[in-house]
Amino acid sequence: MLTKKQLDRYAEVMLWGLSTARSHAFRKNDLVLVGFDLMALSLAESLNGKLLDMGLNPVLRLSPTPTMEHQHFEKSNERQLVFQAPGTKELYEGLHGAIYLHAPESLTHLRDIDSRRIGKALSSRKPLRDILFRREEAGEFGWTLCTLPTAELARHARLSLEEYSDQILKACYLNRPDPVKAWRNLHAEAQVIKKWLNGMPIVWLRIESKSIDLRIRLGAERRWIGVSGHNIPSFEIFVSPDWRGTEGRFFANQPSYRSGNYVKGVTLEFRKGSVVAVSAETGQEFIEKQLKLDKGASKVGEFSLTDRRFSKIDRFMANTLFDENFGGAFGNCHVAVGSAYSDTFAGNPAELTAERKKELGFNDSALHWDLINTEDKMVTAHLANGKDVVIYEKGMFVGH
Question: How many CA atoms lie within 13 A of 79 on its CB side?
């Protein structure tokens, strides 16, 4: 576990992330939701005090324990399965920020639950997420999240708890005298790369590796974003492409845990924007069900690249937050099947109606599942003037 000094540093970094993730500054008495697992209590306590010092109003919510979560899916009738407590909608409409602290005691406690029940519960919460998306687009809401080391995470990552904790300390710069300064410096470096990418008239991207041959259409009115404070850590630079222009094969060599299920060695074949074939070394049936969750679940909502010079993560962490930011020898790329990020729209967010999103090819789904590849790869951008430019190779953005 982390020391009190390290937890206080973590809290300061989280507050930097929360403030950076908002386009407007916080005001006195704004509401900030702090959602936390039981094993993240010490970090929640530190954040609670610091939020009060800032003049903000913390709204504290303890997440269900693994036993409670299993009971919910096992025992609920159809109405209980999608039940939302009175006042939840009103709370979300009034929130100005949210911090989520993940410290899972179990990764596989839902493995015997029918994934369709989990999917139904997930879909029922989509209207609440849509409220926060709208508030974020208006600059009224910001969010961030992090993960703390637990014995369960370390066990599934095949690391000791000390080794797992060390990865988190390195990844979040908590082993440095001034972690917030380190994040500010990284944020400035990422701004340069995003400006370079957004200055190119990219029509489509081709991603090639030993196991990948994928073409992605960027789409109109897009911008690359990332290192924005939303996730701690986050080194990825990403875009939500026009899902209709996805063609070819993607392979995820990084395993993934989702809803109590373990999935490994996933291959997706795309035609005309949708997954037409899927295979997996482990978890085949589960991923097939996930891709049928709704109409958008089998389409791409995000394409992302991580520069290995930014990320100090070099081990599988059994946690998507860290695994999607893997640095290692060759960085990583990942695609997310499911929902797109509307903040990758290059225009005025107020103009991005549901109809406009559909017109531009921003995917919509209750699902968002990151599938990660860490192989040596080359990413080539085909520009509007007909030129091809390599933008990523050997785990780095080329020329930066």
Answer: 0
- Alpha-helical runs (H) found in the chain: 4-21, 41-53, 66-75, 78-81, 88-94, 115-124, 126-137, 151-156, 161-171, 179-198, 284-290, 320-323, 354-360
Q: Which residues contact 169 (CB under 8 A, 6 or more apart)?
A: 2, 6, 175
Which of these, 3, 15, 52, lies nearest to 229 by C-alpha position?
A: 15
Chain position carrying tokens 């995470």:
153
pTM value? Answer: 0.88
Query: For residues 191 and 196, what is the distance between their CA atoms, to the nearest angstrom?
Result: 9
Domain 4-148 class, CATH top level: alpha beta
> Per residue in 29-70, pLDDT tens?
999 999 999 999 999 999 999 999 999 999 999 999 999 999
What six digits make up the tokens of 284?
A: 């085949």
CA distance 273 to 267: 15
Task: Find, among 201, 234, 241, the residue nearest to 219 by Cα.
Answer: 241
Residue ranges of the domains in the chain?
4-148, 183-397
DSSP 363: -
Q: State residue 216 phi and psi, 5-degree precision.
A: -125, 125
